[in-house]
Design a protein that fits this description.
single chain; 367 residues; DNA polymerase, domain 1; Beta Polymerase, domain 2; 4 domains; globular; binds 2'-deoxyguanosine-5'-triphosphate; binds magnesium ion; Nucleotidyltransferase
């Protein structure tokens, strides 16, 4: 039975995990404009400033109706919006655009950094280094990383970040194509059929943007577990091997196994085993897709589901709320800081209850 969200959650509360944020909001274009500044600041390594814009955009995302230039007081009441950003908001409401945003969008540096950082493995600082070396476009990137065609298939996993980048760059044209919901579902069904062969009785959920209602995704994120913990361990590697044998997983971008979640408690293991793969759906003329497979132990399934449903801003605020309560939240569990007690919610709702948060439907976590 789907849980119902409190319809009128206060949009002026501080953290985005206490509010509802729909996929498309009444002030969508304004949010997209401010997000350009957020992105530039992030690419320039100005984390604090970037976070201010991210928070401001999230506040506007939760505002329930379209803002107009007469709404000065309403804007002043929105959380996380300071003088500078509120001026930009008013500029947009007066003129329909923001001068600073127009300048950023027209700049060669911004466009090159956005392009570079769109390649898996290239973060902001690498992007800036590449720009400083004089690289400007895709051809420059391909020449720099010596990419001339699709990468050799195999699941050994890259030995270096450069190899990650080479794979992502070699497959860029394919991986840039968005995945419609029906195909996300087909990929999920296909993988579950193969998993049933490897280990019967697993359960799973499609998470990420798909679960938040996006009509098209950049990748497919799936969280798995098995009710019997002893059967869940090591499954990720087995599944990836099987999918590779069936010709479906062509590359592994990153493979991590169990590692410590709480460094102070060596007895507890991060129960998330994950594999970031390139997947070729068994359909005519397939497009290769990025598929993230995340394996949790049964007791951490629900924190993994919450942690991988997103959005990134929602997750960030969930961690902040947890921290204010002396707790640590991440995808692999909830820990009380002072005595390292671990908590294992048995439903998704229990994760919210644990932090005194209202239930927010996944489709309203688009902060
Ligand atoms: P997209 O771009 O259409 O795939 O949109 P999303 O929202 O599915 O974005 P994605 O796939 O990058 O991430 C899904 C959520 O999973 C996101 O809210 C943050 C979380 N997530 C992504 N990568 C990691 C990771 O390495 N560790 C953990 N714990 N969470 C992650
Ligand atoms: Mg995703």
């Amino acid at each position: 039975v789907p849980l119902k969200t409190t319809p009128d959650l206060d949009h002026t509360v501080r953290f985005s995990c206490q509010r509802t944020s729909s996929l498309v909001c009444p002030n969508q274009e304004l949010c997209e404009q401010l997000d350009v500044v957020r992105k530039l600041r992030e690419l320039e390594g100005e984390e604090r400033s970037s976070l201010s814009y991210r928070r401001a955009v999230a506040s506007i995302k939760s505002y329930p109706r379209q803002l107009s230039k007469c709404d000065r007081e309403e804007i002043a009441r929105l959380p996380n919006i300071g003088t500078k950003i509120s001026k930009m908001v008013l500029e947009y409401l007066e003129n329909g655009n923001i001068n600073e945003v127009e300048k950023i969008k027209a700049s060669e540096r911004y466009n090159a950094l956005v392009l570079f950082a769109s390649i898996y493995g290239i973060g902001p600082s690498t992007a800036r280094n590449l720009y400083a070396r004089g690289l400007r476009n895709l051809r420059d990137l391909e020449a720099f990383y010596e990419v001339n065609g699709p990468p050799v298939e195999g699941i050994e996993g890259p030995q270096s970040v450069e190899m990650d980048i080479q794979i992502a760059l070699g497959l860029r044209a394919e991986l840039a194509i968005k995945i419609p919901r029906e195909e996300v579902e087909l990929i999920h069904r296909t993988i579950m059929n193969e998993l049933e062969v490897v280990q019967p009785g697993c359960v799973s959920m499609i998470v990420g943007g798909y679960r938040r209602g996006k009509s098209e995704s950049n990748d497919v994120d799936i969280v798995f577990t098995h009710p019997d913990a002893s059967k869940a361990i090591g499954l990720c590697t087995k599944l990836v091997r099987r999918l590779h044998e069936q010709g479906m997983v062509t590359h592994v971008m990153h493979l991590s196994s169990f590692h410590a979640h709480n460094a102070l408690r060596t007895t507890h293991w991060d129960s998330l085993e994950k594999s970031l793969t390139v997947f070729r759906p068994p359909i005519p003329n397939p497009t290769r897709r990025r598929v993230d497979l995340i394996f949790a132990l049964p007791e951490t399934y629900w924190t993994a589901v919450v942690g991988w449903t997103g959005s990134t801003m929602f997750e960030r605020d969930l961690r902040s709320v947890a921290k204010l309560q002396g707790m640590k939240f991440d995808s692999s569990g909830i820990t009380r800081r002072h005595d390292s007690t671990l908590f294992y919610p048995r439903t998704e709702k229990e994760v919210f209850d644990m932090f005194g948060l209202p239930w927010i439907d996944p489709t309203l976590r688009n902060a």
